[in-house]
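Thread title: Can someone regenerate the structure for this chain?

I was given the following input by a collaborator and told the matching structure tokens would be attached. They weren't. Posting the sequence so someone can regenerate them.
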Amino acid sequence: MEPFEKDPGPEIRALSLIAAAHRQDPTLDANGQPAELVYADRMAAWVAKLAPDGPLHLFVAARCQHLERFLTPRNTFPEGKVGYLQWRKSLYHKQAARARELALEAGMTESQADDIARWVSKTDLQKDAGSQALEDAAVLVFLENEIGAFAAQHADYTREKFVDILRKTWRKLSPTGRQHALALDLPPTIAGLVREAVADTSTNH
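Best answer:
Regenerated them for you:
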């Protein structure tokens, strides 16, 4: 990864440890790659675009967004919205703690490890540039790579419900994230829903 060509060291070791953890994901994509590793690649690519001059350990954090998520399946929490939110909150804490642990194991400083944990846990969104960069990247990965499957999985959703989900998703993005989102080459149907959600957001704000 280009940002590390300037300064190989603990960050490279951290990336190696993180990649090894991702490879344990039993879920494989269509090409036989661990899904978590593919997701980490996509997150890192977006963070590189969103914050090309960011600190090196931000790129380490980018690869921890779903770190060992496969160890905490959704069905280990109650069904429904409350259970979903509990699951998400649990993941943020677990992923942040594991990312910090691997960063320290790789020889990164306490300060860097604390930064990584803070960013991965999405602490102080909109105020903390690192946390917001990871949030932007996660939304962009969803829009670019996952929204089609999400729509198919929730074919019972009304158009209004889908637009409402996209409207709430849009509000999570920074101005820079929104610029990148508008430039995505989305399927016509999805693009129409996004335009409707964006228009509603602009009207309401």
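The mean pLDDT is 91.
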